[in-house]
Amino acid sequence: MNDCMPIVQSELKKLTALSMTNGWLNSAEIQRTTHFEPRDEKEAVSLLVVHNISLPPGQFGGGYITDFFLGNLDPTVDPYFETIYKVRVSAHCLIQRNGDIVQYVSFNDKAWHAGVSNYQGRKKCNDFSIGIELEGTDDIPYTIEQYQQLSCLSQTLIDAYPALENNIVGHCDIAPVRKTDPGASFDWALYRELLAK
Ligand SMILES: [Zn+2]
After folding, report:
1. 3-state secondary structure (DSSP) of residue 51
2. CA distances in angstroms from 84 to 51, 80, 108, 141, listed in the order given
3. 172 CA from centroid of ligand 1 (Å)
4. Are the C-beta atoms of residues 138 and 52 closer than 8 Å to each other?
5. Is 133 tagged catalytic?
6. pLDDT by residue (tens digit) across 100-136?
């Protein structure tokens, strides 16, 4: 699907729920990273954070996001990579432009996606959240496949962690001074409509 095509809501449908084993999606590409910590067993998963990322910025494909989250980014590939290749971050999942999911961290563990953050007075959002990255930018429309997969994944996670249902935000909402993602290009109304189907 061309990225520039307007998204027609009636064409969208929610995909079949995904299945999980020990916090890992059974149908995703699994790329386990060491960029995580065990989650405190007493800490309920109660926040879903939507992000965007593209590497190099504004370019899609190439596999560099996975390299980055695994700590394997080659600093010689792009000047921008020299500035970030030692940064140890991650997310639970990446949804690529074609809708395919890569998972890096079990939902039962803490991924390093939120950074300095605050949700309704609670800091250190990594402790109690799940972070989902959309391959994209703040100003390029996301794909239909990404909305479908995000809504499907969100529903799957809500089923597993019911506290998520009314606690879905963007990175911009929990780190408003530092972060703008998923940006103006993310259609929250469309996402919520699809999630409600
Ligand atoms: Zn982010």
Report:
1. strand
2. 17, 7, 27, 25
3. 7
4. yes
5. yes
6. 999 999 999 999 999 999 999 999 999 999 999 999 9
